[in-house]
Amino acid sequence: MDKTYFITGVAGFIGFHTAISLLAAGHRVVGVDNLNTYYDPRLKQARFDLLKDKGVELHAADLADRPAIAELFGKVKPHVVIHLAAQAGVRYSIDNPMAYLDSNLAGFMTVLEGCRHNAVEHLVYASSSSVYGANHTYPFSEDDTVDHPVSLYAATKKANEALAHSYAHLYRLPVTGLRFFTVYGPWGRPDMAYFSFTQKILAGEPIPVFNNGKMQRDFTYIDDIVRGILAVATQPASPNPDWNPNAPDPATSLAPWRIYNIGNNTPTELEHFINVLEDSLGQKAIRDYKPMQAGDVVKTAADITALKTATGFTPSTVIEEGVPKFVDWYRKFYN
User: Fold this and answer.
1) Which of 80, 88, 163, 270 is the most exposed place for a label (fewest CB within 10 A)?
2) Structure confidence at residue 90 (pLDDT)
3) CA 24 – CA 19 distance, rounded (Å)
4) Is 209 helix (H, G, I), strand (E, B) or coil?
5) 271, 188 in Cβ contact below 8 A?
6) Is 222 strand, coil or helix?
7) Under a CB-based contact definition with an 8 Å cutoff, are residues 108 and 172 in contact?
8) Largest Cα–Cα distance in the chain?
9) Percent of the residues in the chain that have a pLDDT greater than 90, as a whole number
């Protein structure tokens, strides 16, 4: 049966692609975005306009506007909510901490309340691999502790998981959190390294390569991410009947609450990623090697066993395929 999906952050990178895929599958898609200026507003507006042309029901509003969002929930009556709106970025949080409290905490509470009061069947929300923080056990598993975040952004995402659990427990709201790893692809975010690298390489400017290039990331192509989101969305979280309060599983609960990693499961050296980007652009990068940045981590690697078991999710796009697709889109969009 076709369902009504309500997507927050619909003009964002992941929200945009998720909305298009749901619309293509025959669902009603309603989206909200505040179209903020964290990065080039022309890109967000272009996504917003394209979604409108395709038939997504769009609303320009801020999650901080509680009365407006509550009214919108009441009108839309969504079956499934996919909450992707957030203040992103690790480094930005060092200079602008209050933006993360307003968006990532207060905004998430507005969404939880909307779900609670409108009998939403399932809330799927974006967490982040950054919650693993100081953990150096690879690959990152949902069974690992996430008690030591190293950035404010990570701390807000960890808080989201705790808030979601409280609502799942108190109101039996099925809630699933997805810990995204580094997502890339067409229509991506300009604040992401691969995007800014592309801009600088084409302009003949040096690219900052932190930790002297000794970085690894679990780069995951956007199409793989969207397939995972849609697979999870159709399976509302349920209680784990084997959950043991004396030896609690960090990723499940007696409440209808679940946590999954969603990534590529194949970490890539940053230097190799830059090499592939150079080949796709047909131009060499001027590397400016720098020390590690505050709040950053050396390596991310996703254990996706749980998500694969639950949904059959298997990423299929290698960076040698995904990066050229991004470059092709970039050249066309920016002429």
Assistant:
1) 163
2) 78
3) 9
4) strand
5) no
6) helix
7) no
8) 59
9) 83
Instruction: List, in order, residues 6 or more apart from 24 with CB less than 8 Å away.
Output: none
Catalytic residues, by residue number, are 153
Name the region of 9 (left: φ>0; alpha: ψ -120 to 50; beta: rest): left
Cβ neighbours of 222 (radius 10 Å): 22
Q: Cα–Cα distance between 63 and 84 in angstroms, integer? A: 11
For residue 211, the 8-state DSSP code is: G
Helices (H) and strands (E) in the chain, counts: 12, 13
- CB atoms inside a 10 Å sphere around CB 69: 21
What is the three-class DSSP state of 20?
helix
Q: Which residues pair with 178 in a beta bridge?
A: 126, 260
Query: CA triplet 74, 258, 17: central angle to 5 degrees?
Result: 60
As a whole number of angstroms, the distance between CA 140 and CA 149 comes to: 14
Q: Can you name the residues that pair with 300 across neighbouring β-strands? A: none
pLDDT grade for 40, boundaries at 50, 70 and 90: confident
Q: Which residues pair with 59 in a beta bridge?
A: 32
Cis peptide upstream of residue 267 (ω within 30 degrees of 0): no
DSSP assignment of 117-150 equals HTT-SEEEEEEEGGGGTT---SSB-TTS-----S
The dihedral through the CA atoms of 232, 227, 56, 103 has a sign that is positive
What is the Cα 172 distance to its own chain's centre?
A: 24
pLDDT number for residue 323: 98
| pLDDT of 312 above 80 | yes
* Beta-strand pair 122-128/175-180: parallel
The string of DSSP letters for 243-310 reads --TTS--TT--SSSEEEEEES-S--EEHHHHHHHHHHHHTS--EEEE-PPPTT--SB--B--HHHHHH
Helix, strand, or coil here: 210? helix
State the first-to-last Cα distance of the chain, in angstroms, to the nearest integer. Answer: 41
**Taking Cα atoms as reference points, which of 224, 129, 221, 226 lies closest to residue 184?**
221
